[in-house]
Amino acid sequence: MSFEISTVNVNGLRAAARKGFVEWLGSTGADAVCLQEVRAEPGQLPAEAGAPAGWHVVLVPSAAKGRSGVAVYSRAEPDAVRTGFGVEEFAGSGRYVEVDLGAVSVGSLYLPSGEVGTERQEEKERFMAAFLPYLVRRRAEVEAAGRELVVCGDWNIAHREADLKNWRANRRSSGFLPEERAWLSRVFEEVGLVDVVRDLHPGVEGPYSWWSYRGRAFDNDAGWRIDYQVATPGLAARAVKARVERAASHDLRWSDHAPVSVVYGAS
């Protein structure tokens, strides 16, 4: 039986709910939806966004009010839930949650965005250094148990030149730094996980998933591909279709990101 997973940074779920997220959720065919940058606690959300009919919601807010926060919405009730990835510094950061849905573990990741020359970039680097061993361990654990893993979310790194429109102007910008790109290469080459969307769209520009609200970035499709579904090889091999659900026009956007959706075929 095939299933679909979507992931999107909502840029504040309360605002997104007012702008169109609720309608999108009601129309999606996804079996699981991963959210990042929720920036709200469950009690702060309207029912149609925080506890929508037909969905099981696991929401992990940040201890810092109004920041970060991740969630997984699923049609089926999760068999297990894991919050964080075992590193004390990031235990209350609201940056990672993982749920077991049948034979697949689905993670929602909000990797720090960073800013060159600031503590935010240092935090991002510490996060990456801590998260890589977790991915190594989880891949081994799930495959030893005959299961699969997909880590969906805002990875805040454009891996290749094809992953952002204006790459020449951003070579010294957080999100496209050589050391960040090299780290993501390690995720794919050393850990052995697969960039599912790129695997299905080889040799093309994008498809971009984030556009700045400034200027005419969206209208000119001057975007970045920083939202990924990164899966174990067995699951990635089952991916049959991937798409970025780009809004038809700038005024119809409910986030500066667009949902990235993948359909996986039966095993």
UniProtKB/TrEMBL annotation:
The active site is at Y110, D154, H257. Its EC number is 3.1.11.2. It is an enzyme of class 3 (hydrolase). The record marks N156 as: Transition state stabilizer. Pfam families: Exo_endo_phos (PF03372). Residues 7-257 form the Endonuclease/exonuclease/phosphatase domain. Mg(2+) binds at N9, E37, D154, N156, D256, H257. This is Exodeoxyribonuclease-3.
